[in-house]
Write the structure tokens for this entry.
Amino acid sequence: MLALGLSGISNPSFARVQSESVTKQAAKPKAKVKSKSKVKPKSKAKSISSRKKSSMRAKAILPKRQSFGEKAGLHSEADELSLRSSVAYVIDQDTQEVLFSKNDKAVLPIASITKLMTGVVILESNLSMDEPIAITQADIDTEKGSTSRLRPGTTLTRGELLHLALMSSENRAAHALGRTYPSGLSNFVSQMNMKAQQLGMKDTNYAEPTGLSSKNQSSAKDLATLVAYAANDPTMRELTTSVGMSVEVGRRTLNYKSTNRLVTNPQWDIDLQKTGYIAEAGQCLVMQAKIAGRKLVMVFLDSAGKFSRTADAERVRRWVELRYPAAPQT
């Protein structure tokens, strides 16, 4: 999960220049006007303003950073639903029937979808959820420069940090969970990769616990496996679908909310979800949801546009409801 003022007008040196100009004005008014135009601060201000505007225009025309999917030409792949996601995968978890597939073998950065595995490893470690953990300088993102309201020195329990990481995609929370794992961060990442291997996620690699690194990569099929596995844990289901949370930090109360607006949508019955975004990964979303009487796992990677991942999910939900209507209950 980022005014420039000019103070020369009132300084003493300018006052002296102005006084001398007034004295010279009586003898040589024309020379005075010409001289004043050379030292007038407004000219300097206009010059600075012009340079700033030119700089802003230059920045505005810089090309948008391409995702890995764009570079691979995946965005040009058409599909029957006209999805904005370059990768999509929808599977019935119970029957293993694939309802929809698009570039499901592509291996791409997965951004904060990473935090699902972070949560799995933490919960299966049987570490105390009540143990206090302090945020440190080591938890600050130096790769992407992302911001956080969890300042160094902030202390929360492991359970609170896990909640924030899974619900609000809090990067410092996720990093602190990995950093304080027995034997440290490197061992935590090793455990993430070991778990992926145990689950048969052959296309998956983790480099750190937040998803900020583009080296965290996977395929849609692998992520569907992870979603189905994680959804077996009631704590994972509860924390990922939580709507909001407040934490007390000193004299402050910090309010957090879910990064996925679909969890509050009455048309959706979501058991587990996670969102993610970095430039290299595009907009990402994974969910386990009940649609048309089926328990479906849905994966959307490298979607173009801020709201496109949820729009794609909505489009797929309506398509499933029309194409695979639920059997009438008897």
The mean pLDDT is 86. The CA atoms of residues 64 and 187 lie 36 Å apart. The chain has eleven helices and eleven strands. The first strand starts at residue 85 and ends at 92.
